[in-house]
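Lab notebook page, bench 4
Experiment: in silico fold of construct C2
Operator: M.H.
Input chain length: 205 residues
Purpose: comparison with the prior construct
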Amino acid sequence: MSALSALPFLKPVHLRSPRSSPGGQRRHTLPASEFRCLSPEDAVSVFEIEREAFISVSGDCPLHLDEIRHFLNLCPELSLGWFEEGRLVAFIIGSLWDQERLSQAALTLHKAQGSAVHIHVLAVHRTVRQQGKGSILMWRYLQYLRCLPFARRALLMCEPFLVPFYQKCGFEALGPCEVTVGDLAFVEMQHPVRGHAFMRRNSGC
């Protein structure tokens, strides 16, 4: 059984639009809201959202298109997309890391034997921002990680102005991150993941 099939909170929410055909019969529509792991076929949609979200703020993207494809081929199970009526509106991409703190190599590597999930990027489409979708998606992602037997903690690096957002999501600041991108400096943050055994006892995973 795959990790995804065991997780009820990642299965599609089959809410359908009440649109009807001219004859009065309800026609088939896509699920109104769906959470699922991403695939390499989603890479272009992911990059379009990320590019718009980050270029105007920092002048660069955390992941370029080839890097998005790289991670979605290596570890799609560490990604999560939020789709509304089939359209991607928000996403997270992660990979595994095997050291206590992030280093420059963590930007491009997936350490398959690691127990820390490095969250590379969280982005929300511009048309649905300021609706709390980033917080909801992160909550669902952390719930998902708690059902993965190898995941022990989540790590990310962010610019200082984003620290309060991630603190509200339950992350704690570890201090300055040694990773730099151009002139940008980052704060490294961590969230404990209690692991498969705890969640199996307490939430049916």
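Observations: The chain has one domain: 33-192. Residues 33-192 form a domain with the Aminopeptidase fold (CATH 3.40.630.30).
Next step: discuss at group meeting.
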